[in-house]
Amino acid sequence: MALEQFNLEGQVAIVTGAGKGVGQGIARVLAESGAVVIGTARTESDIAGTIADIEESGGKGLALVADAMSRPDGERVVSTTVEQFGKVDILINNVGGSTYARFLDITDDDFRHTFDWCVTSAFIMSQLVAPHMIDAGRGSIVNISSGSARFGIRALTAYCVAKGGLEALTRAMAQELAPKIRVNAIALGSFATDGLQSSLDMLPGSLEKMKEATPLHRLGNVEDLGRLCVYLSTRDCYATNATFHVDGGIDSNNSPLPIPDY
């Protein structure tokens, strides 16, 4: 009986940035739980690969090339989803990122772009799906944040600020869209993705240092995030206006990359 509550059969989910990494892992688990997954990404080969994997595993999905920072692209994604599947039950705002830049080297354009990448994208997609969820009387929105919103990370100032803004957006939307729509955030720690690996490759031995600085002494698995998204998407879920920390227990920056003092 309990496990039946985690069956998402008949639900329709949009996952942004699902072409690789965290978004890909979440999309796969949602599909395994029965949801139809509409995955978006800017790179066609990435998102096509994700949806192909889902379908080969017996799931249902649709790949759409889109930039979540673009309202016209978002409108196309939502309208296509509603036209083909009749509704939107779940939105996972996973898009986000930043480039490494020390505080004095961040340009105004870099700062604005990072904010748009992490926050404006979630605002646009949430605003577009909310009317459909309100009409249906239910819906779940999950914003993918980061532990960097709680503590600063050198050379990622813009990212830290943007993820803090995303969590503020989560709280504001949760209050305004309740009771029909639940809005939560997941603050990530260090997860085993190609993106993280490329950063760690800059410094041999950094993976071991990162694990040692994490209380659980290991990196996270992206499928674990998918399982939490499944819970947050179940219709009887009582959580809203919450940020769930899935980070291996860190309470400070665990990055092993040496950023010198000024």
TrEMBL record:
> Reaction catalysed?
a (3R)-hydroxyacyl-[ACP] + NADP(+) = a 3-oxoacyl-[ACP] + NADPH + H(+)
**Coiled-coil segments:** none
Indicate whether Zinc-finger appears among the record's keywords: no
PROSITE patterns membership: ADH_SHORT
The molecular function terms in GO held by this entry are: 3-oxoacyl-[acyl-carrier-protein] reductase (NADPH) activity
Pfam families xrefs: adh_short_C2
Keyword check for rRNA-binding, yes or no.
Answer: no
Gene Ontology process terms (BP): monocarboxylic acid metabolic process
Q: Which UniProt keywords apply?
A: Cell wall, Oxidoreductase, Secreted
List where the protein spans the membrane. Answer: none
Reading the lineage from the top rank, the first entry is Bacteria
Please name the InterPro entries in this protein's record.
NAD(P)-bd_dom_sf, Sc_DH/Rdtase_CS, SDR, SDR_fam
State where the protein is found.
Answer: Secreted, Cell wall
The family classification in the record reads: Belongs to the short-chain dehydrogenases/reductases (SDR) family.
State what protein this is by name: 3-oxoacyl-[acyl-carrier-protein] reductase MabA
Organism per entry: Mycolicibacterium vaccae ATCC 25954
